């Protein structure tokens, strides 16, 4: 009679899901491993926005044009607000392109946990994949609108209009990165808070609209009285908008010190967003 000895075999797991150990434990390597999923989310967001519409992606062009024309008529012709000697149409289109990307990314990111609760409850993946995909998918819309803006800029420049594109245009990727990180940071903070305080969802649209008028989108920073200008500059979007207009139109002013403030504000905001995100992620399925 032979006796066979049973030996235990350690299971080899391909992935191990563990709780986060610190408020800055973002597991960016794990997020990078989800890049294929992020690309799928990007494609889903881009296709779903204009699905079953007549004009489809043409709305990426129509919306900024209509908004710019409205601003030009109301604020340029009726209210006769200053544009720092820049052509009104280009002045308002520059602000519209920047604000459209920021506000759209912020609004969509701010509902990450609530809007995707069903998906998060069924399968595990890095939760930051969703807000990151929103920021990336909106870059497609920004690229289309930015190309439209450059087209009009070329026409105005060829006709000898008072536009002065300059070397500061090389700063555009940095400005866009700051814009994306700001919208992502604010969106993650609001999304984390809305898991417990649903009132924020109702206040979001109203708050974003007010924020637009607190940012020099329809008026230049030079219109703000000198004694109140520090309040306008406390808005981290103000240096970005002013730098963008100065780079492409030559209007307004650009300050590396103010841009450094926006970068520092963004860094602190991302730290706060990371802390809130890690706290909420552990229990949000019980509260949403």
Q: SSE layout and pairings?
A:
Elements: H1 28-33, H2 35-49, H3 59-78, H4 88-109, H5 112-115, H6 117-120, H7 129-158, H8 172-194, H9 199-214, H10 229-234, H11 237-249, H12 256-281, H13 284-287
Helix pairs in contact: 2-7, 3-4, 4-7, 4-8, 4-11, 8-11, 8-12
What features would you highlight for this structure?
13 helices; mainly alpha; 288 residues; 66% helix
Describe the largest sheet. Answer: none
Helix content: 55-70%
What general form does the structure show?
Answer: globular
Helices and strands, in order, run as HHHHHHHHHHHHH
Amino- and carboxy-terminal Cα gap: 62 Å
The structure class reads mainly alpha
Residue ranges: pLDDT <50 for 5 or more in a row?
A: none
* Number of helical elements: 13
Rounded radius of gyration (Å):
23 Å
Overall pLDDT, averaged? 83
β-strand percent reads: under 5%
| Number of separate structural domains | 1
Number of strands: 0
Provide a descriptive summary of the structure in words.
The protein has 13 helices and no strands. Helix content is 66%, strand content 0%. It has one domain (34-278). It is globular and about 60 Å long. The protein has helices spanning 28-33, 35-49, 59-78, 88-109, 112-115, 117-120, 129-158, 172-194, 199-214, 229-234, 237-249, 256-281, 284-287.
């Amino acid at each position: 009679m032979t006796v066979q000895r049973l030996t235990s075999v350690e299971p080899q797991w391909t992935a191990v899901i563990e709780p986060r150990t610190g408020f800055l434990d973002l597991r960016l390597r794990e997020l990078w491993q989800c890049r294929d999923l992020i690309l799928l989310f990007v494609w889903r967001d881009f296709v779903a926005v204009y699905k079953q519409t007549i004009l489809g992606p043409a709305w990426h062009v129509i919306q900024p044009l209509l908004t710019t024309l409205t601003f030009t008529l109301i604020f340029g012709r009726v209210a006769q607000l200053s544009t720092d000697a820049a052509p009104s149409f280009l002045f308002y289109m520059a602000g519209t392109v920047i604000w459209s990307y920021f506000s759209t990314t912020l609004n969509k990111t701010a509902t990450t946990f609530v809007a995707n609760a069903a998906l998060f409850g069924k399968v595990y993946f890095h939760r930051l994949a969703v807000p990151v995909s929103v920021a990336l998918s909106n870059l497609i819309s920004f690229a289309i609108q930015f190309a439209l803006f450059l087209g009009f800029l070329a026409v105005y420049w060829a006709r000898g209009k008072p536009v002065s594109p300059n070397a500061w245009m090389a700063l555009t990727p940095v400005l866009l990165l700051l814009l994306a990180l700001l919208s992502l940071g604010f969106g993650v903070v609001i999304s984390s808070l809305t898991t417990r305080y649903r009132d924020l969802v109702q206040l979001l649209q109203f708050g974003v609209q007010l924020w637009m008028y607190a940012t020099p989108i329809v008026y230049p920073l030079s219109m703000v009285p000198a004694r109140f200008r520090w309040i306008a500059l406390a808005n981290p979007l103000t240096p970005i908008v002013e730098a963008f207009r100065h780079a492409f139109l030559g209007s307004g002013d650009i300050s590396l010190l103010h841009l450094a403030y926006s970068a520092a504000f963004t860094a602190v905001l991302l730290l706060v967003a990371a802390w809130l995100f890690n706290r909420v992620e552990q229990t949000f399925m019980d509260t949403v």
